[in-house]
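EI: anyone free to look at a 298-residue chain?
SC: sure, send it
EI:
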Amino acid sequence: MKAVNNLTLNVEEGELFGLLGPNGAGKTTLIRMLTTTLTPSSGDAKLNNFSIKTQKNEIVKLIGVCPQDNIFYNELTAEENVIFVAQMHGIPLKESQQRTNALLQKLGIAGKKRWAKKFSGGMKKRLNLAMSIIHEPKILILDEPTAGLDPQARRIVWDFIRELKGKGNTIILLTHDMLEADALSDHIAIIDNGEIIATGKPAELKDEHGGENVLEIIFFKKEDVSIMKNQLDGLSFVQNWRDFGEKTLLILFKGGMKNYLKILQKMSEKIIEVENMKFRQNSLEDVFLNLTGRRLRD
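SC: here you go
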């Protein structure tokens, strides 16, 4: 059995590339190969034109890895952990201290004098992130960077990742969080059984594989249902509609928020008010379910 099978992937410099797949899909094997801890049985990959098979020392200088499982020295402070990693990369002590202080400030864990083993789960995750980027790598691999974080801490990490991307870092993001992948990724690849089964921009994947968006409208008057159907006739992106009772219409359509607004515009031409509306936009969860037949955490 092959963990990764004839996989071809292209990540552009400076982009954030999301990699989605269920447990056992081959993501971890792929990352181990890209970080040179596992040599592929055939084929090769190049990071910044360096081969993962023959130029491992150059690859190691290029990359930073924030692993899913936290790795740090329990009986060191956050500052001591990050400075230690910085000096492993040959960064002078004064510069290490300056970089460390700036990073920990941005991630909200500066000035914590207790040992790292006493940190909360979210603080440990942010410490690992700081340790992975202290040497300012050109390529950053993030494995579940916000797992276990509360909403506020997650937002801090999201903003920080966007800042890194804005500086030109190339980032590979492994996540089970579909909202995170959608919010951060320029492109996404879905991997299953060791193969890439779909790749594209999040919006493209949702349009092609995500099924329809759903708009449910409850009207005050039953005759408005027929009026609304007539209004929908000229909209090519509307896939179907269904009646629920006398005053409720379910509209299924492609194209996301832009086309949702077009439907509302058409409705406003003939109908002044409605009793209620509910809108559900298709998601990467729908894409994944349609392509693999299972949810991401299955």
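EI: The chain has a mean pLDDT of 89.
SC: 👍
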